[in-house]
Structures are given as C-alpha cells and as structure tokens.
Design goal:
The chain has 27 helices and 32 strands. It is an alpha+beta fold and about 850 residues long. The longest helix has 19 residues. Strands 8, 9, 10, 11, 12, 13 and 17 form a seven-stranded mixed β-sheet that branches. Strands 2-1-25-26 form a four-stranded parallel β-sheet, covered by helices on one side. Helix 19 crosses helix 20 and helix 20 crosses helix 21. The relative contact order is 0.12. The protein is globular. The two termini are about 50 Å apart. Bound molecules: ligand ANZ and zinc ion (ZN). Zinc ion binds next to loops.
C-alpha cells in the first residue's frame, strides 16, 4: 500500500498566485489558431472601467471561464478575450468632480481592474485586448461612421429629443429608465436638437426575429425567448393602411395610420399629435377659428412639450383639446371633429389617427370623457367575450358599414385595403415603432464624429487616410450646454477637404453604444490596420459561439450589435447574419440583506476581501454554486465557508489515494465516477454551473466513505473540478508529477491542458431495486431506486420522504430513528 504523504494544510493564499504567474509565464492560455481544430469564441460583455471590479463582474466572468475551460478540455480551441468599454460619461463626470483628466482617470482604472481581474484566475487571453478610447480602436469607429454616411445610413437631422439636463446631452430612448437618465437618474425632458442619427430603421425587417419554430431552426441561433420577443416588440412592426381625410373648408389633408381600416365607418373624430404641422397652420395661419379655442390649443401644445414619449404613453388619464376644425369622412362625407391629444405620438405613423371609440380602448376612454360619438361597426359572434365592456376589439362581422357589411374581420382587412386603394382614399402601409438611433452626444469623452462642416460644401467626411481624428487632450470639458470640443478652436478649425475653404470639425462625439456594437470583431486582431477587422479571420473565428451578458442590454446593446452585423454583411465583410450563436443572460447577486448591493445601503460585498479570506477558488466555486446562472439571489456569507470546507476535503483526500486500489473499483465506484463525468460535463456545457458543483459534492460524499481511493478516481475528480477551481487542482496535479512515478514529465504540463475525462454509457445502466418503506413497522409505500443509490441509506431516506404518502404519515411526528436493510426495507420509527 502506498498511501501518500499529506499535502499539509490547504492555504489558498500560498498557492494561487504562484500558479497564475506560472500560467502566464508558460503562455498556457494564449490563443493560437490551429488548423483543423474547431475554434470556440467565448465572449463576455466588455466591462466599463469604473475602477472597481465588483461581485457582478466576478459572477459573470468566473462562470463564463468555467464554461470556456470545459470547452478547452473537451477539444475546442477556445478564444476568450476581454477589453474595456472605456469612453463615456462617468469618466467625464468623475473627472470633473475630482479634477483629473477623463483619460488619466480611465487608464488608471483599467490598470486597477486588470490587477483585480488577475486574481480570478481566468483563462482570458489579454493579448487580444481592445480598449475603446484608444485611437487605434476609435479610428475604426470613425471609418464605420463614414461608410454609413456614404450609404445614407448616418445622417444629420433635427429631432425632438430626450435631453438630460444634468449630463447636458441627448439620450436614446433605450437610455431612459422610468423617465430618468440611466446614468445619473435626472428627469429627462424634451428638446429640439440637431444631431447625428443612424438609420437602424432601414434594418428593421432583418432585425426582426422569426420566432416560429421553422424560423428558429433556420436562424440556427439560440437566444433567450425574452430577448427575441423583447426586441421584436421594440421594433414593433405593424401592418395597416394610411387613409386621407380632407379638412372641411380648407385645402389641407390629414393622413392617418391605422391597423384597422375595416373600422372606417366607425370613425367619429380624428386626433392629431400636439406636434402635428396642421396645428401650426391653424394657430399661425388665417384659419377661421375663434381666439378662445386658439388660446386653449396653444396652451395645450406648449404643455405637451414638457413630457417625454414614455410619459405620454403611460399617462393614466387621457387629455385633449378640440382644434376648432372638422374633417370630412371619406365614405360618408359626414363632418367629424378634429382633436389634439397627447396620446397620439408625433414619432409614430403619421402622427394622426382616426378614432374608433367603439373598438379601441384609448379612443373609447377619450370619447367618454369629451362626449364624442361612438359608432359600433363590428358585430361579435354571439357570446364572444369582451363585447359588454363598452368597446369591442375581438373578431366579428362588419355592420353599419355600407357595402362592407358582412365582411368577416380581421380576415377581411386585406380586401378593404384593396378597396381603399382603388378609390384612391388610402393605401397599405407598414410602420415600425423603432426610431432611428440618435448617436451623437454633446460631450467630450467619446469618439469625435469624423465630419467637417463647410459653409460652401455642407457636411463633408474626413478623408479616410486622415483617420483617426484624434480627440484633443486639452479641452474645457465641463458641460455648458454645447459640445465641449467646440471650445478647442485650433483643433476645430480646418480647411474643407472638398473646396479647401475654411471649415470646422464636428464637435460632437459618438454615443458609447457605437463603440460596443462591434468590439468583438476587433478582439480578433486589435492591431489590424487595413479594415476594422480581418474578414478572413472573421470567417474562421466568428460568429461568437456564446455571449454572456446582462438582461439590461436586450433593447440597447445587443440590438445595435446585430444592426452593425447586418451592416458589415451588406458591406461584404462577413457572410453570416447574426454575430452570436447563443446568448446567455446572467442573474444578479443581491447584498446579504436581500437588497440590491449599493454603497448607500452599505451592503456591498467586496470580492477582494472574500478572496483574501477564502481564496479565489472558493469564491469561484461559490459563485458557480449559489444559484442558477440566470437567477437572482443574495450573497450568503456562511455558504462560502461551506464551499471552502468542500475544497479542503478534496485536498485532504489526497492522503487516501492508493495506486493499488486502481484495479479494485467496485461496480458502485465505477457507476459514481462515470455518472459524475457525464453530469458535470453536460452541466458545464449547458450553463448549469450550480448543479455541476452539487454533483461533485455528491460524488465526494461517496468517495469520503471509502478507505482507499484509486488514482483514477482522484485524478478524474481533479479534472472535473479544474474548470471551477483552477488553482487548487493545478497544485495537486503538480504534486502528483513530483511525487509520482506515474508522471515522468520533465516539462510543465498543466492540468488545464489535459483532456476532459470520458464516460462510458455502459457503466451508467443500473439495476433497479424496490424498497419497502415502513412507518413503525407497517408497510406504507414501495419506492424504486437505482441499485447504486440504494447502497446509501441517506439517499433512500431522502427518496422515501419525497413520497406524498410517507409525507402524510410523518407529518407532525418526530422521526426517532430509521432502520435500513440494504436494498430491501426502510423503517421509520416515529412518535
Ligand atoms: C383606428 C383603429 C381602430 C385603431 C381600432 C385600432 C383599433 P400599432 O399596433 O401600435 O401599430 N395609432 C396610429 N398612430 C398612432 C400614433 N402616432 N399615436 C398613437 N396611436 C396611434 O397601433 C396602431 C393603431 O394605433 C392604429 O390603428 C391607430 O389606431 C393607433 F379598432 O386606427 B387604430
Ligand atoms: Zn467646402
């Protein structure tokens, strides 16, 4: 018997750094393309350099790392890069507050965070790092922007915009949460601003997910349903028609957009948005409207400007004002009043609607409040639910609708649109709720928009060979309501690339979501200098195989990234449609008190502190084990010490490893080993880190009951644990190399370069046994179990207690003891 020497005490602090240094010295995780080997692109959303790596980062990165390590051991050539999303307002705001330059602040934070990252012990290959605030990165932002401009996909426009008065910048709709700025929490107001837009709307159709089963198969990608549906709703494709209404006694017309042209005979009034130009004609023109009405209209319109689109959509009580004029119904020639109301949005459709209060909830509420007519035109089939509620939105047959009576709707809508088109009263029309992306910011710390304004030539792009337009360092970047770069005169004054006359650079910078829309292309080769990325390399390494990130990016970042991918495809740079085959969204770790961690609550758990107490491996394993990856749960300070003990037990098990036990595994031993190989492998592959850990725990319980453990069992245990606890497993693995004749390797051979163990199905087939369960000696239940499981009394008891019948007999009683006759009878003695 060759029992081994003890490894001494498990002290993570003495081993973890040693191995990280060794791995980096040996280039253990350096990614190299290998012909004939499948590459696996493992991506995590690039972090913002706030200067502090928090537990949320740890949670996502260490679990993504366990997945990557498993893939590597299973034979994939894993590419796991990282970088920093380094532009943006927090740097600027923090810099203003502390009087340091945003660039210095950012670069210092990156340094700190990289040293914190190092303690995780991930296999991230930092040689592919991309930092978005470096000229070698944003040069390509500018290149992409100019290409988009040349294709008409980037344009300068004026729009009523969300304006954050404290950040003094425009925000995209996606940047507003509950009417407040997502960065600083100030209430967002509406302001007419000239700015740059990206025409994401021209990709609206290709961005729609086909959520039918066939569609999902055709896409070949695996994204969560919540993301696919969320994005589709956000894009909001609507098929309908536009219909013209003549204004009584005037030349002007009002065009409405409707998805229910079949209800045209039910229209009793029109409503236009407060921004509708027809109101301007009326208020400032020579229309015959009394002064009182004019004043009311004017006041209403002014008040509406204060509100965001979101406020208006969510407004509880509908408000409105009569405009003083009428429109002519195109089929009945009746005069119907035109109203102005906030619930009609200027940014959607034509900014005007035909109101059908009998069949639309909002119109119904409005008609009731202002005493307007209600005309029912859809007859529900008898007993159709919903008809009692005042307005009816369900299917039925048209009635009171002239020639259309009897048409079944909604099926017949197509026919009605044909009718309207023939009569030249309207035409079919598709609308999207998605807006173009407002992409310029009136702030300093971002990519300069590579455009030049010339009085003679208009807007002229910077010639491509003059890129990058470098962001000047010396600038007064305190917000003053205009773009800070406009104060850097010597930088701003240039000669026009077209006419040579004096011109000015664009002073606005790009939204940082532009930077993060394509960084994962840049990772492939951050030094590449012919294009934003090497198309040939993209063909080999992309699309991304798995993309880990947060649910908050459903409507912003991931949609933009898909948009850029569609654009790159149109540019001929890539051949695929979606940048990531699979998207996985991580959950949230709450403070120990069950609330969101925040400095003001004082419930923030600092990962550095926990690492210095228990070691990185214990933290990693706890973060895998604490909850399903997508879930939300509080940090549990006692559970982590349990995890630490689990690792220590494995460490101590080393002493029981006995080479001579190798040929002597029982059927049960073999079953446990193969079952665990299978389960842990599948779990790490399918992002079920928590159950991977619990099956390792179960196996350890089995092993702990044995006197001797075979080398094969112990080695297998280490290999299965290696993706989760990379430091400790390496330490023990190397002890084998030193102490053991089995390993004759002179060179360093890391456990992380080993193959994943293989299981054999044939060992997983188990005989089943039926066990009789008694309570106080009376037979109450039969349970069936795998015979290997039935060797463990605790497993049998657990299973028995899961039976509803047994639960009934044990309820309110105390189990004094239980007697088990292996494979036959379990008796609970209760009182
Ligand atoms: C008449 C009608 C009758 C409507 C009926 C609905 C039901 P989605 O599905 O979102 O596209 N609408 C059109 N433009 C609008 C705007 N700018 N602001 C607010 N509401 C607007 O909704 C389309 C429907 O929303 C349109 O169809 C219109 O009301 C309204 F029984 O027209 B409907
Ligand atoms: Zn010019």
């Amino acid at each position: 018997m060759s029992k081994r020497k003890s490894l001494g005490r498990y002290i993570p602090g003495t081993i973890e750094k040693k191995w990280r240094d060794k791995w980096s010295k040996e280039h253990t995780y350096e990614f190299k393309e290998e012909a004939g080997k499948e590459t696996y692109y493992n991506l995590v959303e690039l972090p913002y350099p706030s200067g502090d790596l928090h537990l949320g980062h740890w949670f996502t990165f260490v679990n993504a790392d366990a997945h990557a390590r498993y893939k590597k051991m299973s034979g994939s050539n894993v590419f796991f890069p990282n970088g920093f999303d380094a532009f943006g307002l927090p740097a600027e705001n923090a810099a203003i507050k502390r009087n340091i330059h945003p660039q210095d602040w950012t670069m210092k934070n990156i340094e700190t965070m990289k040293s914190q990252f190092a303690t995780m012990g991930t296999m991230i290959d930092w040689s592919h790092e991309a930092i978005t605030c470096t000229p070698s990165y944003y040069k390509w932002n500018q290149w992409i922007f100019i290409r988009m401009f040349e294709k008409g996909l980037a344009y300068r426009g004026k729009a009523l915009s969300n304006w954050c008065p404290s950040c003094q910048t425009v925000l995209a709709n996606e940047g507003i949460e509950d009417g407040k700025c997502w960065r600083c929490g100030s209430v967002v107001v509406q302001k007419e601003i000239e700015q740059w837009f990206l025409k994401i709307t021209s990709f609206a159709d290709s961005l729609l997910w086909d959520n039918t089963d066939e569609g999902k198969k055709a896409n070949g990608v695996e994204w969560p349903k919540s993301v696919r549906e969320g994005q589709n709703n956000w894009i909001g494709r609507s098929e309908g028609a536009s219909i013209q209404f003549q204004i009584s006694n005037h030349k002007s017309q009002i065009e409405v957009f409707t998805t229910r042209p079949d209800t045209l005979y039910g229209v009793t009034f029109l409503v236009v948005a407060p921004e509708h130009p027809v109101i301007g004609q009326m208020v400032h023109g020579k229309w015959q409207i009394d002064e009182k009405t004019k004043k009311e209209v004017f006041a209403y319109v002014e008040a509406a400007k204060e509100k965001t689109e979101m406020d208006r959509k969510e407004q509880k009580e509908k408000t409105g004002v009569f405009s003083g004029f009428y429109a002519v119904h195109p089929l009945t020639s009746e005069e119907i009043p035109v109203w102005i109301a906030e619930y009609v949005l200027w940014g959607y459709g034509t900014g005007a609607i035909m109101a059908v209060p009998a069949h639309d909830g909002r119109d119904y509420e409005f008609a009731k409040k202002y005493n307007l007519g209600i005309k029912k035109v859809i007859q529900a089939k008898n007993g159709q639910p919903g008809e009692e509620s005042g307005y009816y939105v369900g299917p039925g047959t048209l009635t009171h609708s002239g020639d259309w009576d009897g048409i079944v709707v909604p099926e017949g809508i197509g026919k009605i649109i044909e009718y309207l088109s023939e009569k030249k009263l309207g035409k079919s029309r598709v609308e999207y709720h998605l807006h173009d992306w407002s992409v310029s910011r009136q702030r300093y710390w971002g990519t300069p928009v590579p455009m030049i304004h010339c009085d003679t030539c208009g807007v002229v792009p910077v010639p491509l060979d003059e890129l990058p337009v470098v962001l000047p360092y010396e600038v007064d970047y305190a917000p003053k309501g205009r773009a800070p770069l406009a104060t850097a005169e010597s930088w701003q004054n240039v000669s026009c690339p077209k006419c040579g006359g004096s011109a000015k650079r664009e002073a606005e910078t790009l939204d940082t979501f532009f930077d993060s829309s394509w960084y994962y292309y840049r990772y492939m080769d951050p030094e590449y200098d012919a294009l934003p990325f090497d198309p040939q390399r993209a063909e080999r390494l992309m699309p991304v195989d798995i993309y880990f990130g947060g649910a908050e990016h459903t409507l912003g970042h991931t949609l933009y990234a898909r948009f850029f991918t569609k654009f790159f495809k149109d540019e001929g740079l890539i051949a695929f449609d979606e940048f990531a085959k699979k998207r996985v969204q991580h959950g949230i770790i709450l403070g120990p008190d069950g609330f969101r961690m925040s400095k003001s609550r004082g419930n923030v758990v600092n990962p550095d502190d926990v690492v210095s107490e228990y070691g990185a491996d214990a933290v990693r394993l706890y973060l895998a084990f604490m909850m399903p990856f997508e879930a939300t749960a509080p940090w549990n300070p006692t559970a982590i010490s349990g995890i630490y003990r689990f690792l220590r037990r494995i460490w101590e098990l080393y002493e029981r490893v006995d080479d001579s036990a190798d040929g002597m595994l029982s059927k049960q031993d073999v079953y446990w080993m193969h079952k665990t190989i299978k389960k842990v492998g599948e779990d790490l592959r399918e992002i079920r880190f928590n159950t991977a850990v619990s099956s390792l725990m179960e196996w350890l319980n089995h092993l702990s009951r044995k006197e001797q453990i075979s080398l094969e069992e112990y080695k297998t245990l280490l290999l299965l644990l290696a993706p989760l606890a990379p430091h400790m497993t390496e330490e023990i693995w190397q002890m084998f190399q030193i102490q053991d004749s089995v390993f004759k390797n002179q060179e360093f051979a890391s456990i992380h370069q080993e193959d994943w163990p293989i299981y054999d199905e044939k060992f997983l087939v188990q005989d089943e046994v039926v066990i009789v369960v008694q309570v106080n000696g009376k037979v109450r239940e039969n349970i069936t179990m795998e015979s290997a499981e039935s060797k463990e009394k605790s497993a049998v008891e657990k299973k028995a207690k899961e039976s509803e019948k047994i639960k009934g007999y044990l309820e309110g009683k105390t189990v004094k003891k239980s007697i088990y006759i292996e494979g036959k009878i379990l008796n609970f003695v209760v009182s």
